[in-house]
Each structure stands twice: as C-alpha cells, then as structure tokens.
C-alpha cells in the first residue's frame, strides 16, 4: 500500500492556492519596490544581459553558416568557431556599411539644413500661414520674429538646459560602452554555446526526472522557435518597409532618402508605436525642407503601414505565433508601462509563450485533475 503524503491531504490544494494568493498580493502591493529591484538588477548586469540578447539574436545566422557552409567539417568545436567567426565578420561588415552610407549623409544633411535654415524657416512659416485653427492663423514670425531670432531661441534653450544635455550625453556614452562590452561578450557566448548548452542540460537532468526533463526541453524548444520566428520575420518585415520607403522617396526625388528610410525601417521593429515614431521623425525632417514632401510622405506612410498590417505581416507571420490581436495589444500596453521599449519589443513573443503555457500545459492539467486522471 502506497504511503500517503502531505500532497494527498484534502486541504493541500487550498493551502497552496492560499499561499500563492498571499505572495501575489504582497508582490502587487509592493510592485514599485519589485520593479525598482528588477531595474537595479538589470543595471548591474546590463552588459551581460545585452550580450546574451545579442548572442541570441545573432545565433540563427551562426547556425545557418554551420548548417550550410561548414557542414562538411566533422569537428564540433572547429565548426562552431568557424561559423561564429563568419557570423561576426558579416555583422561587423554590415554595421560598417551602414555607417559608411548613413554618417556622410547625416553630416551632409546637417550642413545643408544649417546653410538653408532661412529658406526652410520661410517655407515653414508660409505653410503654417495657410493653416487656421478656429479661425486663428499660425504665424511663427509674429511669435519668434526673424530666423536669426529663432536661432537665438534655440541657442538660449541649449544654454538653459546644458546640464540636462550633458547628462543625456553621458548616459548615451555609457550606453554605447555597455553595448560595446555586450558585443564582445556575445562573441564569447556564441563561441562557448555548446559548452553552455551541455552544462544547462546536465543541470536540468540532475534537478528533474527524465519525464519532467523532456517536458522542460520541449517547452524551451517551442519558446526558442517562437522567439526565432518573431525576430527573423520582424527583421525581414522592417527591411521590406525600409526598402519600399526608400524606393518611393527615390522615385519622387525627395531629400534625405537614405536617412529617413533607415529611421522608418528601424522604428518599424517596435510593434504598434514604432511606425508612428518613424512617420513623425521623417515628416519633421521633410517639413523643414519642403512641406509638400512631408504631407506626401505621411500619406504614403499611412498606405504603407496599412499594406504592412494586412498583407505583408500576415504573409510573413501567418498564424505561426497564434496570438489574438486583443492579447497582443494588452501585452504591448502592459509591457510598455512596466519595462518601456524593451517591454513593447518583447510583448508579442512573451504573450505567445504565455498562450503556449496556458493551452498546452495549464489547461490540460486542470482538465485532467477535474476528471481524476
């Protein structure tokens, strides 16, 4: 006869549920402190976390090189080393290419803007004069005066907020340093990924039974597949959107085609609010040069984002993630409020994983308990 354990007691499920409820209540009642603690932890380990993220994002490319280019190499360590090296050569070459393309255009754009500021100022004022809100016409000159006064206003604003600008610059420099360290760490992580994976597998086997180990591995593989598909399809989608934007602007002969298209492509990675940021930044840049181009750009962006939402994204993603639009929106709102841009970026795959846990593991477990299996 099997010895009864405490888990067989009739009060055990209720006690566990009560303990979980108490812990959940304590966490919610001190959510500010919890989030502050998480933020402090992330700040301490930020380069390491960023390195893990970079390694994870780049890893599919490394696996592609290993599977297609170095498949004849039988030695595992040598194959990993060559695929990792080739991966980072490609990544660095891509970054250098983008810098070569964008930095000269950015410098030229800044110089052009400075040289033609008076003309841009006049064209902006003429356009705003044609706009009326409640019968009130907008006139920059009546508020600011000449373009020289506008430049003085800008200079005064910079002078009054110099401390904040220096703080932002210092933070930006620190972030760049963290990303450089993270990039170096990602090289080591990819080079050692075989050893890290073997170590984690050994730890899980030591902690869990073979059945539970197989379930955990299955869940991790499914989660990894969700993240990989999301990252790959999102990057492809952003590349398509940026390229279409560049083609459109190039055909119409608009200024700053490369710069604006790069911004549009990068911001398109962020779900929901990213395209809005890209449209606002691009329209502002074009507004200072030629207001009609800014209006055309906004109209085209609306058409392009509609095309992306109803044709491009569904064909790329299909039903692979299987998440409803409602839960995606909820995840974006909650993730954005809790963790900012990072929360918004990770909202969709995390919601897909939560949906996987609920439908594949939690719901069947509850149903089996109900029928006594």
Describe this entry's structure for a reader.
The protein contains 14 helices and 2 strands. The protein is an all-alpha fold. Mean pLDDT is 76; it is low at 143-147. Strands 1-2 form a two-stranded antiparallel sheet.
Mean pLDDT across every amino acid position: 76
Proportion in β-strands? under 5%
Which of globular, elongated, flat, extended, rod-shaped describes the shape? Answer: globular
Instruction: Indicate the structural class.
Output: mainly alpha
Structural features:
373 residues; mainly alpha; two-stranded antiparallel ribbon; 14 helices
Provide a short characterization of the protein structure.
This protein is mainly alpha-helical and 373 residues long.
Write the layout of secondary structure elements.
Blueprint: H1 12-29, H2 31-44, H3 46-68, H4 76-115, H5 117-129, E1 132-133, E2 136-137, H6 140-143, H7 147-160, H8 162-191, H9 193-207, H10 210-252, H11 257-267, H12 274-289, H13 291-317, H14 325-371
Antiparallel strand pairs: 1-2
Helix pairs in contact: 3-4, 3-8, 10-11, 10-13, 10-14, 11-12, 12-13
